């Protein structure tokens, strides 16, 4: 069954390129991002895994653990990592789950038979400290993911989990946010000391609260 927003991210134990893990223990009390790959030695995935290793400090700044998955075994992962490091001029610095029996792929509904009966699609799951799924994205196998966009989404998710705000279209960290409709103007005056401007009763902007 498909995982929906707000569902608990299923726990699992698996072998990875960095040893055996328990997924929930690996995430600890922070955030997590799990992203899948159709198989090892694929060109688009090679660029993705390389890019993520380069921006891993950005995930760490946000208290986000990164973990990838591919349906090939650990030995294959290790050979592929060597290629990624060489071709992308980086060092892969996070685990890649070996999911040869497709246990995790099926648990997270990563195989879409009408796209391919055997390989995982490019799924992304952002998981909160409560182990609940906060975001899901599914890309076709041919399209590389935009990890800068995923960082932006995580910024928004973390902001809105702490304050009564939402983020408008194309919002970036540091820009004005939207006060959620459930907060009255009276409460908004107390909650948002920087003030707010009302465009419509349901559309009120306030400076980003944690800046």
TrEMBL record:
Pfam name, any one: 1-cysPrx_C
Enzyme class, first EC level, given as a word: oxidoreductase
NADP is among the record's keywords: no
Keywords (A to Z) from UniProt: Antioxidant, Oxidoreductase, Peroxidase, Redox-active center
Positions annotated as active site in the UniProt record: 45 (cysteine sulfenic acid (-soh) intermediate)
E.C. no: 1.11.1.15
Annotated GO MF terms: peroxiredoxin activity
Annotated InterPro entries: AhpC/TSA, Peroxiredoxin_AhpC-typ, Peroxiredoxin_C, PRX_1cys, Thioredoxin-like_sf, Thioredoxin_domain
Domain (Thioredoxin): residue spans on this chain: 3-159
GO cellular component: cytosol
GO-annotated biological processes: cell redox homeostasis
Annotated CDD domains: PRX_1cys
Family per similarity comment: Belongs to the peroxiredoxin family. AhpC/Prx1 subfamily.
Name of the protein in question: Peroxiredoxin
């Amino acid at each position: 069954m498909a995982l929906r927003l707000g569902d608990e991210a299923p726990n699992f134990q698996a072998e990875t390129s960095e040893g055996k893990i328990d997924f929930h223990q690996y995430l600890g009390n922070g955030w997590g991002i799990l992203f899948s790959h159709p198989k090892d030695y694929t060109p688009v995935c090679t660029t993705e895994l390389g890019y993520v290793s380069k921006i891993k400090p950005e995930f760490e700044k946000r208290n986000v653990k990164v973990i990838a998955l591919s349906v090939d075994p650990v030995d294959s992962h290790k050979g592929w990592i060597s290629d990624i490091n060489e071709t992308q001029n980086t060092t892969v610095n996070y685990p890649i789950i070996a999911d040869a029996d497709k246990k995790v792929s099926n648990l997270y509904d990563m195989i879409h038979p009408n796209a391919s009966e055997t390989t995982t699609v490019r799924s992304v799951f952002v998981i909160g400290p409560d182990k609940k799924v906060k975001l899901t994205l599914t890309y076709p196998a041919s399209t590389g993911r935009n990890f800068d966009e995923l960082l932006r989404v995580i910024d928004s998710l973390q902001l809105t989990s702490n304050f009564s705000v939402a983020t408008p279209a194309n919002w970036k960290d540091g820009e004005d946010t939207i006060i959620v409709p459930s907060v009255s103007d009276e409460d908004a005056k107390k909650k948002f000391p920087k003030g707010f401007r009302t465009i419509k009763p349901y559309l009120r902007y306030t400076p980003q609260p944690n800046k």
